[in-house]
Automatic annotation (TrEMBL):
Catalytic activity: AMP + diphosphate = 5-phospho-alpha-D-ribose 1-diphosphate + adenine
Protein name: Adenine phosphoribosyltransferase
Any one GO BP annotation for this protein: adenine salvage
Highest taxon of the lineage: Bacteria
UniProt source species: Streptomyces xinghaiensis
Recorded metabolic or biological pathway in which this protein acts: Purine metabolism; AMP biosynthesis via salvage pathway; AMP from adenine: step 1/1
Localization per Swiss-Prot or TrEMBL: Cytoplasm
Organism placement in taxonomy: Bacteria, Bacillati, Actinomycetota, Actinomycetes, Kitasatosporales
Keyword line: Cytoplasm, Glycosyltransferase, Purine salvage, Transferase
UniProt GO MF annotations: adenine phosphoribosyltransferase activity
Glycosyltransferase keyword on record: yes
Name of the coding gene: orf5
Enzyme class at the top of the EC tree: transferase
Free-text function comment from the UniProt entry: Catalyzes a salvage reaction resulting in the formation of AMP, that is energically less costly than de novo synthesis.
Entry EC no(s): 2.4.2.7
Length: 180
């Protein structure tokens, strides 16, 4: 399919596949793998995610795992370094950790204690916002590690909750919000 002539939002929506019932009944999983496989579309969307933050971030932090895939090229595009925010127990050196609620149970994100110089401006990246719990934990974690969260960007907001309130004053740049 030639998505090259479409606007960014249309290209985004055409390149993401809804998978109803995955990983559990009642969930519609947003599969971004077709988007990632399209060089033109992924390049345009990564650029669109970063546009408001040009010259305003010193590091880009990606949330494991799909956030990594978008955050690494975005860091390169903005000319800054990439920092992984990983699931518990994956980083080899001393970490800070932040727990957060999932639909069932809890999870933890970790970052290396020396990932940021004090006061570095950090843009946090993920693919999809659902309840906002993961994003909120990521922003708290950056602050714990002496970074200054200057923004959060993602491809999609599923429109489930008032995410802006949950994420406080951090500027949000979400390419598309799904009507709930
Ligand atoms: P939440 O913490 O509820 O905002 O969930 C966001 C995290 O879970 C992100 O890292 C997403 O990759 C993932 N996620 C949640 N719901 C979905 C969904 N319907 N499709 C794809 N990923 C999702």
């Amino acid at each position: 399919m030639d998505r090259g002539s479409l606007g960014s939002t249309d290209a985004l929506l055409q390149a993401i596949v809804d998978v109803p019932g995955y990983p559990r009944p009642g969930i519609v999983f947003k599969d971004i793998t077709p988007l990632l496989a399209d060089h033109d579309v992924s390049g345009r969307l990564v650029a669109a995610m970063g546009e408001p933050f040009r010259g305003k971030a010193d590091k880009v932090a990606g949330i494991e795992a799909r956030g990594f895939i978008l955050a690494a090229p975005l860091a390169h595009l903005l000319g800054v370094g990439f920092v992984p925010l990983r699931k518990a127990g994956k980083l080899p050196r001393a970490t800070f950790a932040e727990g957060y609620d999932l639909e069932y149970g809890r999870a933890t994100l970790e970052v290396h204690r020396d990932a940021f110089e004090p006061g570095e401006r950090v843009l946090v990246v993920d693919d999809v916002l659902a309840t906002g719990g993961t994003a909120a934990a990521a922003l708290r974690l950056v602050a714990r590690a002496n970074g200054v969260p200057v923004g959060f960007t993602a491809l999609l907001d599923l429109g489930l909750v008032a995410v802006r309130e949950k994420l406080g004053g951090t500027p949000l740049h979400i390419l598309h919000t799904v009507a709930s």
